[in-house]
Structure formats: structure tokens, C-alpha cells
């Protein structure tokens, strides 16, 4: 009879088991603390106390236990630095061919959308005519539209969260909403993007406007977030519906800031790259988030979903 003797002393084995149990208990306690804190965040958001909600999230981010590891973890770099994809090319970190194709497709969609808007009157007539054919649209097509809308809004939400922009509310139209209105819109509103109310107003004549509200770093964050929905569509479906108020909104902001054409093109390109990288790295989190948003879960619940599923490698 052979007797096998472990090369690892029994006491070390017991210590490792105790350590593993302790780690799991610590993670469970941290998760419970996070859930409780996020319920407080939801309470502040519901009351419209956005600064208080953001302050709570920042406290969780800075907690020694790392309660919020995802928030602001992909903070936007200042313009002028190496682009996100170029940086990864230099490091050889990941295969970039598919991501570059997605970025190129997004930039093409942006150009097409801008051209589409220049024909607004003709477009409105086309949409009206198209609406008259809705009765022959299949139920299956509506479900596809709903799926795309889910992923689009989740793209905004996740990119914003990872860049440090806290969503304050969102809406994803249901299948029933889309059956009644093919173009029912979703939305994600963020704390810190209130400057959009001033877009279109002459900065010089607007006494309430401060350029500190939208420095170049915050512009990069906004640009990446606004393209997050479009990026999600291209990564998941390989195409976009092309009807994007997001593109119009971004273009208006860039015009409002008097960026040159080259500056605007560079801003859009790097924002598209940042959005694509975030969504590709955290595809599981994006998928779970889309499901939660489709069910109308609270912002705090959505944040919890992200934190449980982000890729920390």
C-alpha cells in the first residue's frame, strides 16, 4: 500500500482555506455595503439631489474596500494625448483590427447622419411615408428594434459611468411603446451635462455660462458618452439605424464651441475610439446592464449590475 505525503504542511493548507473563506466573507460584506449605499444614491436621485448623489458615489469610489471599482476607471484623457487605439497599438495589448473597423464604421455613420440632417425636410416626408407602412412591419422587427434600443441606451450608460459621469435617470422604450410609435426614443441623462441647456446660446452673451463647465477634458467625456450608443450598435449588430439625434447634438456642441473642422474631426475620432474600447472590454457588463435597463431597474441597481460584471483585467 502506497502512502502519499503532501509536500505542503497541513497547517499551511488550513491557513489557505481560512484565508479563502475570509476573502469571500469580505467580498460579501463589501457587496452588501455597496448595495445599501446605492439605495441611498437612488433616494437622492429620486429627490433631485444630484450633487448629494454624486458625492455618495465618489465616496464609494474612494472607499478602501473598493466598493465602486468601475466608476471613472476609464477617465477620459486630455485632447492632444495619444489616441486610445494608437496607445494600444504601441503596447501590443490586444488585437485591434475589429475595433478599428468599428471605429471606422462609426465615423462613416456620423458623416452620413450629418448629411441626412441637411435634407431635413425631405427626411421628414420620408419618415411620414415610412410610418404609413408600419402596419405591415412584422412583430419580429419590433423586437429587433427594442433589442437595438436596449443596447444603444446601455452603451450611453456604461461609457458614461466608466468615464465618471453619473446617470441621473434613463428611459428605454418598451416593445409596446415601439408598436405604438416606431420612433419612440430612449434617453440617458447625466449629472454634469447640464451645459446642454446653453447650447445654441452665444457664450459671450450668456452671463450664466462658464467655460469651466466644459473644458476640453469634459468635452472628451461628453463626446465619448454621446457616441456610446452608436458604438454599441456597431459592435453588436454591425450597423446602425442611422437616425441619430446624438450625432446632431454632438455636432451642435462642437459648432457652439467654435471648433475648426480638423479639431471637430479629431474630437469625434478619439471619442469613438474611447467608446469602442470601453464597450468591447466590458461586453458582459454591457449585456447585463441592457437587461436591467429594459426592466426599468433603478440607477443604483444598474450600477450594481455593472460593478458585478466589469472586466478588471
Structure description:
- By secondary structure, the protein is mainly alpha-helical.
- Helix content is 63%, strand content 3%.
- It contains 13 helices and two strands, in the order ααααααβαβαααααα.
- It has helices at 10-46, 50-61, 84-91, 97-117, 120-131, 139-163, 175-180, 216-226, 228-237, 245-256, 261-281, 283-294, 299-309, and strands at 167-171, 187-190.
- A two-stranded antiparallel sheet has the order 1-2.
- The longest helix has 37 residues, at 10-46.
- The N and C termini lie far apart (46 Å).
- Mean pLDDT is 80; it is low at 121-137.
Q: What would the keywords be for this entry?
A:
single chain, 313 residues, mainly alpha, two-stranded antiparallel sheet, 2 strands, 63% helix
Short description:
With 313 residues, the protein is an all-alpha fold. The chain has 13 helices and two strands.
Secondary-structure topology with pairs:
Blueprint: H1 10-46, H2 50-61, H3 84-91, H4 97-117, H5 120-131, H6 139-163, E1 167-171, H7 175-180, E2 187-190, H8 216-226, H9 228-237, H10 245-256, H11 261-281, H12 283-294, H13 299-309
Antiparallel strand pairs: 1-2
Following the backbone from N to C, one meets helices and strands in this order, namely: HHHHHHEHEHHHHHH
Helix percent band = 55-70%
Provide mean pLDDT, rounded: 80
Class by SSE composition: mainly alpha
- Molecular shape: globular
